[in-house]
Amino acid sequence: MTTLAPSKLAMVPFVSVEHMMKIVNTIGPAKMIAEIAAYIEADFLRWEQFDKTPRVAAHSDEGVIELMPTSDGETYGFKYVNGHPANMARGFQTVTAFGVLARVDNGYPVLLSEMTVLTALRTAATSAVAAKYLAPKGATTMAMIGNGAQCEFQALAFQEVIGIDTVRLYDIDPDATAKAARNLESTGLQIVTCGSAQEAVTGAEIITTCTADKQYATILTDNMVGAGQHINAIGGDCPGKTELHRDILLRSDIFVEYPPQTRIEGEIQQLDDDHPVTELWKVIAGKAEGRRDASQITLFDSVGFATEDFSALRYVRDQLEDTGHFTLLDMLADPDDPRDLFGMVKRAS
Q1: Active site residue 51
Q2: I need a labelling partner for 190 at 20 to 30 A (CA). Which of 99, 261, 290, 343 fits?
Q3: Which member of 43, 237, 301, 309 is catalytic?
Q4: pTM of the model
């Protein structure tokens, strides 16, 4: 167990994958997702304090590498993340990530953390925050189309925060569905494995789509979506990648994180640039309407935004003293005389 002793303030706490898994299992996955959701919601309420910019992306034929920066004026944060859909077939993760928090007043980093696991937790938490304001009240059933790395986290988030009791699973790969069903069998959720997307959405008040192929895809066709359903679309997250038929968008009230980013990367890249959308933070802050009535189709077109990663990193940093699951890295040169960096190097010889 490591503690943040005052004598080691020049050292940077590092949360490895092993540490993150210990934190998750110490707190409990569902509880941790719900607690991250509370941090995300709190930061959405102070949305106007944050520096905001679309993520900085380097695209290639194989995938994308991105930086996602933001600051609230006191703390700066960024995430490095990749998205390579072909990785799964080659035995690699589709998405990997790490993140940093730093002090604005002196620029010193105060946390370095893995974010592959943490991104899954914060994505699920963000979905649940949106559904809290957009999903039908009393919803009990979610269809989960795409049963890869995100699936179980999403199911737990909606169980813990929204109160669903049934998840209907479908993936074009039956092994992925079987994996998800095994992982969720002890959660108390009723798990229904389905043979098609159409079967999965039948009777579901909430539909979550989370597929990996980097292409314009039609995971949901217009006839699959009925009055009153909430769609949580999280798979379309880069230019040229979508999951929903355009006609679904035209029938839905659409909610997004940050329009300048979502119009490039989200489902709404299929629509005209002036098509109306509502920013989620405005709904949370009471400045815009969310769900108005039982027949409304709501769509959360989520691509992930830097403030959500900031919230998740902020949460993890707040858990370090209690859990002790981190190590200290000697990342910051700390010469006795700030002007004598060379002398520090010379003396070390």
Answers
A1: no
A2: 290
A3: 237
A4: 0.94
